[in-house]
Structure formats: structure tokens, C-alpha cells
Amino acid sequence: MSKLEAILSQEVEAEIQAILEEAKTKAEALREEAGAEAKALLEGRRRALEAAFQAALRRAESAGELLLSTARAEAKGEVLTAVRAKALEALKALPQKPEWPEVVRKLALEALSAVAEPEALATHPENLPHLEALAKERGLELLADPSLRLGVRAMGKGGKTRVENALESRLERAWDALSSQVAQALWG
To answer: Domain range for residue 107?
Structure first.
């Protein structure tokens, strides 16, 4: 080989080495850039998954709280229904109590006070003996009405005015206020 060939061979070899070095440097830079992009992409994906997980967790907690609230409300409703049934049961037991004649008399007086010109008083047949004296005293006709077990009905002249005063209907009218008091007493 000639000297010229040796020099050219050396220069080519040096150029090949320089190209290889540059290629290695570029490859390393590309690898690092790709690694950084992959790391950033993974970090972004991790944050997105974490955010999605937190959102799903909040939704699940909200759904759980809603289910719990619904279950509590239903349970409270059942308790209030049971209390109402017990109250009605206690009212239905009143006619067997010694104070019943006075209770039915007070119901009659309240009903009569709401009628301008009372003419008659109706009540359950079992209650008639308790109201005979009042009817006689006021000059009222006393009528039997089996539907009025726990109350009375006062009727005005000509039957145009009627006022019913029965414990069951009073419980119905007062239940909203009573149930809120019962709920307050039970659950604060």
C-alpha cells in the first residue's frame, strides 16, 4: 500500500470513527429524550389514573352516604309508623278505661260549642249512656252511630251543620306535628 493509500485509509477510518461517535451521541440523546418522554407520559397517565380513582372513590362514598341516608329515613319512617299504630291502639283501648265517660263528654262539649244551634248529638251505641245527662240538659236528640266509636258528632238545626270530634281524626290532623315531636324525642 502506498503512502497515499495509507493516509486516505487513515482519514476514512477517522471519518468513520467521527460519524460513529456522532451517531452514538445522537442515539444516546434520542434514547434519553425517549426515556424522558416515556417517563412524562407514564407520570401523566399515573396522575390521570389517580384522579380517576379519587373521583370514583368520591362517587362511591356519595352513593354509600345516600344509601345510608335512605336506609335511615326508611327506618325512621317505620318507627314513626309503629308509634302511630301504638297511639291508635291506645286510643281504641280508651273506652275500657274508667276515665272514658269524662273523655267522651268533653269531646261532645267541644263539638257542641262549634255548632251555633245544636239539635242532636250522635255517638257509638256504647257511648250513649255517658251522654244521656248532657243531651237531656241541653235538650238534644241523642243518636246512635256505630262509626263513631271514639267520638261524637254534633248537628245543628235542620242537619245543615255537622261537627265531628273523634279521637282518630284528631290524631290524623295532629300527626304531622306529633310525628316531628316524636322524631325530635327519639333522634334529637
So the answer is: 97-187
Same domain as 114, residue 141: yes
Question: What number of residues does the chain have?
Answer: 188
Please tell me whether residues 64 and 109 are part of one structural domain.
no
If asked whether residues 90 and 106 sit together in one domain, one would say: no
For the stretch 70-127, pLDDT in tens is 998 899 889 889 988 999 999 899 999 999 999 999 999 999 999 989 999 999 999 9
Helices (H), the chain: 3-93, 100-113, 128-138, 167-187
Whole-angstrom CA distances from 41 to 27, 33, 44, 55, 173 are 20, 12, 5, 21, 67
Structural contact between residues 95 and 116, judged by C-beta atoms closer than 8 angstroms:
no
Element (H, E) at 166: strand 162-166
pTM of the model: 0.62
Which residue type, as a one-letter code, is found at position 166? Answer: A
How do 141-144 and 118-123 pair as beta strands?
parallel
